[in-house]
Write a structure and sequence with these properties.
Largest sheet: 7 strands, antiparallel
Shape: globular
Number of strands: 15
Strand order of the largest sheet: 1-12-9-15-7-6-2
Helix content: 10-25%
Number of helices: 2
Strand content: 25-35%
Order of helices and strands: EHEEEEEHEEEEEEEEE
Distance between the termini: 19 Å
Length: 205
């Protein structure tokens, strides 16, 4: 492969960059305040209570599963006659927000979704939502606050290099590229519930 060598004191000038349209919102979370009504959030939570709950784990990159980096429970949700309205509403927002800000090539929700429960002491360490295998095709992450932020302390959705925390009003929608480092801080009072889903698309290129 032909290439132009460089050192830190002699980086060659880049050419043609002016021909590339900038995408200044590429690494900035977006979303909608009050995207779901409180009544809709209650209906979503009803769905979670009739599905089997599991303890959330994290892969360590070596094929092992651990709870060291998180403490939460979750249920899996897939499109169904009782849940189609949730996915359809999210897809409407996705198309608009992606067209306005990210301009990714996306296909849809290939994994369904998960509803997370963070009890007192619940948390999720810094991580990205993109990884090997099917997770490499994740383009956008979507999170919906299902609990009123006044009902719990801590449990903030935080992004690395951003001082601002994610909105925590009931029904607030947060959308961000799957490669952004983020975490959920430890819950110190109450219980936080959140809907999480990922939008897939062709490989980055």
């Amino acid at each position: 492969m032909d290439y132009q060598p460089w050192t830190f004191d002699g980086v060659p000038e880049r050419g043609g960059m002016e021909a590339l349209a900038p995408c200044n919102g590429l690494t900035i979370p977006t979303g909608g305040i009050g995207f779901f009504s409180p009544e809709e959030c209650v209906e979503i939570l009803k769905v979670s209570r009739v599905l089997p709950q599991r303890v959330a784990v994290t892969g360590d990159g070596l094929g092992r599963r651990t709870t060291e980096h998180r403490k939460s429970n979750f249920v899996e949700v897939y499109p169904h006659t009782t849940t189609n309205w949730i996915f359809e509403k999210l897809e409407t927002a996705l198309r608009q927000l992606n067209d306005q800000q990210y301009r990714f090539e996306v296909e849809g929700f290939f994994e369904g979704a998960q509803i997370y429960e963070y009890p007192v002491g619940g948390f999720l360490d810094w991580h990205m939502d993109i990884a090997k295998g099917y997770m490499s095709n994740r383009k956008l992450s979507m999170s919906v606050q299902l609990t009123d932020g006044a009902e719990y302390d801590g449990g903030n959705l935080e992004f690395m290099d951003f001082e601002e925390k994610g909105p925590r009003g009931q029904g607030d929608l947060i959308v961000f590229p799957a490669f952004l480092q983020h975490r959920v801080s430890k819950v110190t009072r109450g219980t936080r519930y959140a809907w999480v889903s990922w939008v897939h698309g062709p490989s980055y290129r």
